[in-house]
Amino acid sequence: MSTFKDELKKIKKIYDDNVAKKKREALIEEWGEKPIILYGAGTLSGFVKEHLNRHGVEINGFADTFRSGIEKMTGLPIISASQLKEDYSDAVVIITSELHGESIMKTLKEIDYSGFIYSFDELLSFYTIPYEEFEPHIDGYEWAYNYYIDDTSKQIVIDAVKMRLLGTAMKPSPNPQYFEPDICPMTDNEVFLDGGCFIGDTSEEFIRQVNGKYNHIYGFEPDENNLKKAVANLSAFKKIDAIHGGLWHMTNVVSFVSGEFGNSHFSEEGAELVKVFGIDDFFADKTDIPTFIKMDIEGAEASALDGAAETIKKHHPKLAICVYHSLQDMYVLPKRILHYNPDYKLFLRHYSKWYAESVCYAV
Asked: Which 3-state string (H, E, C) describes the chain?
C-alpha cells in the first residue's frame, strides 16, 4: 500500500476542491425553505442536529415511532408518524437512526409520506470537520497506519480520515461488532467483561458466539434504566453479574449524565452520581479474571485501560476497545494498550458507514 503521507495528499487535494462543501450546498439548495424534521429522537438525532446547525441548517422538530411530547434539550416537539403526515406533508425528513433506519423507512412508506426522505448515510458530508481540526492528529494517524501490518487495518485508518474530512462512506465488517473469529477466537471458558453493557445486547451476542459455553459474564453499566433492561434481557442465562457502575482508572464516585439511547457518559455537568470501578480493583479478590474485555464507554476508554493496567500486564486478556469517541482515540488507545503490554498484536475493524464504531482488537 501507499505511504500515509501519499494517501493524505490525495485526501487533501479532494478536500481543497471543496467536494464535501459542494455536496452540502446542493442538499441545502434542494431543501429550500421546507421544514426539516429529524425522524428518531435518540442519540444520533442530537448529533445530526448539531452538525446541521453548524452549517446553518435549523430543524423544526423531531418525529418518533415510540415517543411524543417535547425534546427536553431543545424544547422542540416530538411528533408521531401520523402527525408528520398531517402537519408536515412536504417536509424534509432525515432519518437519524442507523439501527432502525429500515424500520423507519418502512413506516414512512406505510403512511404514504410524500415529502423528501433522507437516510443518515446520505448526510455524511455534514458530519465532517475542518482540516485544521484534524491537523494536530496527523502524526498520530500516521503512527497508527504504520503500526498495523494487515491491509484491512491500514485501510480503515485511511477511510476514517476520509470520512472525517470528506464525508466518504466507510465499509463495515460483515461480522458482529466486537467479535471477529479470525482475529479473536473464543474458547469454552471465557470470562467476558462487557464494559458499557447498555441493554445487554453485546453480552447476548457473546453468548451466541460461544454457543452458551462460558465461565462468567460481568456487565458494567452506569445508567440504571439501561441496566434494568440488561438484567431483563439476560435473565434466561446463568453466571452473569450485572453491575450498576462504570469503568474508570480507580474505584470512586463520579458525576454522570444518563441517556437511554446509549450515550450515557461521565461529566462534571452530570446531575447524577454513580460508582465507577477500576478493573484491577474489582477483580483483586476474585479468581475468575477476565479473559476478554470489551469497552464501549463513551470516551472513558483511556481511563478504564489505566484502571486495568495490572490485568493487562499479568493476564493478557483479549481486548476489543472502541477507538472513535474522539479524534485521538485512533492512536492514543492502541499506544496505551501497548504501553501496558507490548506483547499484544493489534488489529482494527469497523462496523458502520461513518466514523463511529471502529474497534481495536488486542490479542
From this structure: CCCHHHHHHHHHHHHHCCHHHHHHHHHHHHHCCCCEEEECCCHHHHHHHHHHHHCCCCCCEEECCCCCEECCCCCCEEECHHHHHHHCCCCEEEECCCCCHHHHHHHHHHCCCCCEEECHHHHHHHHCCCHHHHHHHHHHHHHHHHHCCCHHHHHHHHHHHHHHHHCCCCCCCCCCCCCCCCCCCCCCCCEEEEECCCCCHHHHHHHHHCCCCCCEEEEEECCHHHHHHHHHHCCCCCCEEEEECEECCCCEEEEEECCCCCCCEECCCCCEEEEEECHHHHCCCCCCCCCEEEECCCCCHHHHHHCCHHHHHHHCCEEEEECCCCCCHHHHHHHHHHHHCCCCCEEEEECCCCCCCEEEEEC
Distance CA 24, CA 123 (A): 8
pLDDT, position 4? 98
Q: Which domains does the chain have, with CATH numbers?
A: 17-127 (3.40.50.720), 136-362 (3.40.50.150)
Question: CA 147, CA 335: separation in Å to the nearest integer?
Answer: 10
Predicted confidence at residue 8, as pLDDT, reads 98
The pLDDT tens digits for 22-33 are 999 999 999 999
* Ranges of residues in the chain whose predicted pLDDT is under 50: 260-265
Specify the amino acid at residue 154: K
What is the C-alpha to C-alpha distance for residues 127 and 55, in angstroms, rounded to an integer? 10
- In the sheet that holds 358-362, the strands lie side by side as 240-244, 216-221, 191-195, 292-295, 318-322, 358-362, 346-350
